[in-house]
Write a structure and sequence with these properties.
It is built from 25 helices and no strands. It is an all-alpha fold. The protein is flat.
């Protein structure tokens, strides 16, 4: 389940209502305050919110129950029976509250849902009574024999709870997809897609549920109807979220999703926002981190059209965000198939990307520079790239990237800066087989910079991957211009085996620099 990492006090403040409600439920034993049957119980928090908020509240409650069950198992291992019982009572109350809350906003519950609810409530009540008996028993041998039964009951509760949550989320996904399928209203469809997007943000498991229920099929159906053009960006953004899982990718392939994306990207009548979100879907489904992209056979059939459209989007991008999405898609495609690099070369993509890097409003973050240098690194295996790099002042850009630093200190940004440094060194190493590129790099003082990155851990943020790439680039340039290195640098960084130089640099103290 997707959870935002927040300060512990803030987390406590967010959960305070839930915990207060739980204590009230303990006292009242799940009975409503109101005497009128048709009045809403004031303690049911979900009545104050919209359906989407209700679902978020349900997920929070589910997370609390899941955490409590884990803690019960831990306390049980330590034979802390007093704590086990009090936490069991609390879980019992949370389960009652969760079911009551859900039943106030759900449209209808299936027979299977009611059965699971009853099984879970009965088992929780049985568990509470059982732990109470354990609390009253002082005989260690009897407690030891009862412990296995407690463990078994706890496991059963966890299973019933997991099945119930799975059923609830499936039912919610089905309801939203029915709205998308049956409604001809743009407003209703947009609202349903927004709900689906919120669900997808809760993690891969939710994405699998949506995909299995036909979410990808329904969303691509929207993307093929002109009457819904105004909500294409939201629809494509939701698709990008769902397609992070294998089930979503399989569904995309079945409905010719690649062809639909290619049509959207090449249709100049669509807005830039629509093109950008289509690029985001392409970036997602071609991610080199996914292990299940090889079945996208239709992608190769449409690759040239898609790459051409993405290069154009990079060239005409009006903002850094649009450029980032388009360049990320291109970067992933260069990993996906080597033919993409040749297409990019024919389209003068290197010139376009190098020009974009000089515009700080467009390439404005280390993340964007990471995508650009990834493309350059993958294209640099082609011999023709060297002349393009020289003409576009690409060596100067690569030198700048060797000095990439995070301005915020944010962990993700620092990691992006490391990738920029590493890939720029890799690109220089590959391109320096061309004497003209090597000469340009030497004239721009590339060798001293590489030496500093090798010898100074702080310059490379203690990154081993940056160190290896810099050592490789330095050795390539040393072959072309051996006179530019001092003897000590040559003896330590070039002459030994790469692994020996690596070990030497990783063990260096900052004072040696």
């Amino acid at each position: 389940m997707h959870l935002i990492q927040v300060d512990s006090v803030q987390r406590w403040m967010e959960d305070l209502k839930l915990m207060t409600d739980c204590e009230c439920m303990c006292i009242l034993q799940s009975k409503p305050i109101s005497l009128e049957k048709d009045e809403q119980n004031e303690l049911i928090l979900s009545s104050q919110y919209s359906t989407c908020d209700n679902l978020q509240l349900l997920l929070k409650r589910a997370w609390i129950i899941s955490t409590e069950l884990t803690r019960i198992a831990q306390k049980l291992e330590k034979n802390r029976w007093q704590r086990v019982h009090s936490m069991t009572v609390r879980v019992n109350c949370h389960v009652h509250s969760m079911i009551n809350e859900y039943n106030t906003f759900t449209r209808s519950s299936s027979q299977e849902m009611h059965q699971l609810e009853k099984l879970l409530i009965d088992k929780c009540s049985e568990f509470t009574a059982f732990t109470e008996r354990c609390l009253q028993t002082e005989d260690e041998e009897i407690l030891k024999s009862m412990k296995s039964c407690v463990n078994e009951t706890l496991t059963t509760i966890a299973q019933y709870f997991g099945q119930l949550i799975e059923l609830v989320l499936t039912q919610e996904a089905q309801h939203l997809l029915r709205q998308i399928e049956l409604s001809g209203s743009v407003f209703v469809t947009e609202s349903a897609i927004s709900g689906l997007f919120s669900l997808a943000q809760e993690g891969a498991h939710l994405c699998r549920i949506i995909a299995k229920e036909g979410g990808v099929v329904a969303l691509f159906k929207i993307c093929r109807q002109d009457c819904f053009r105004c909500i294409y960006p939201q629809t494509l953004r939701t698709l990008a979220s769902i397609c992070c899982v294998e089930e979503g990718m399989h569904q995309l392939e079945k409905v010719d999703g690649i062809l639909c994306l290619a049509d959207i990207l090449t249709d100049t009548s669509h807005s830039e926002a629509t093109h950008a979100e289509a690029a985001a879907v392409i970036a997602q489904i071609t991610s080199p981190h996914l292990t299940f992209t090889q079945h996208l056979s239709s992608f190769l059939e449409n690759m040239e059209e898609i790459v051409t459209a993405l290069v154009k989007l990079c060239q005409e991008a009006s903002s850094g965000e649009v450029f980032l999405l388009a360049s990320a898609a291109l970067a992933n495609i260069t990993f996906f198939d080597t033919m993409a690099c040749e297409i990019l070369l024919q389209l003068n993509a290197m010139k376009i990307l190098l020009a974009a890097c000089s515009d700080r409003h467009i390439v404005d973050t280390p993340y964007s520079r990471d995508q650009v240098v990834t493309i350059l690194a993958n294209m640099s295996v082609l011999d023709q790239c060297a002349s393009e790099i020289i003409q576009g002042n690409g060596v100067e850009l690569l030198m700048e990237m060797l000095s990439e630093k995070s301005s915020s200190g944010n962990a993700a940004e620092v990691a992006a800066c490391e990738r920029v440094q590493q890939k720029s060194a890799v690109t220089l190493a590959r391109l320096s087989r061309d004497p003209e590129v090597a000469d340009a790099a030497v004239k721009l003082s590339c060798i001293p910079r590489l030496i500093k990155l090798c010898r100074s851990p702080t310059e490379r943020n203690n990154s081993d991957s940056v160190l290896v790439a810099c050592l490789a680039a330095l050795r390539r340039l040393a072959v072309m211009s051996p006179d530019r290195l001092e003897d000590s640098d040559f003896q330590q960084l070039v002459k030994p085996r790469l692994v020996d130089s690596f070990l030497l640099c990783t063990n260096m103290e900052e004072s040696f620099v």
